[in-house]
């Protein structure tokens, strides 16, 4: 992970939109050194980075947030709360222990999923029906609805054994390798750091035992 931490340098190692959303903190394990969604403007930047909402939609949200700072702060807080719920739910799935999730967490997760899917609409386009979204142009929670659709798709379509949590930072990712042996969110960053820690600990034990 880059020393200069902002949306521009934020890696997209999740393999799915909802996981990239969860991974908008420096770490879920250990010390969280940076919050990438520090303000609503950062969220709009993130939307542009991952390619959700049109340029016009993002501009309208940015303008509305700027002219209604209290509303924007409240919306961002809600979005972060749901992000935490998503992390805990998918971390439990990654650990193979979803049955240990509290009833409260499951209720919050299901409520967010239901709300997100309720905004989906289909419209005729040529000879088919095309999925779209129905929400007010200034709905500051609009990005969250798209994220929740991604979370639904992952649980409905992907093998749960491919949902993993990085043992170093806690980022959630979808293992898309053929052998399903991927361990780190990023082998260059977290993988190298963890290997260095193990090497240091091994050498320390050897010196203490000498």
TrEMBL record:
Domain Zinc finger CGNR stretches: 162-203
Top-level taxonomic group: Bacteria
Entries under InterPro entries matching the protein: ABATE, ABATE_dom_sf, Znf_CGNR
Pfam families given in the database record: ABATE, zf-CGNR
Identification of the protein by name: Putative RNA-binding Zn ribbon-like protein
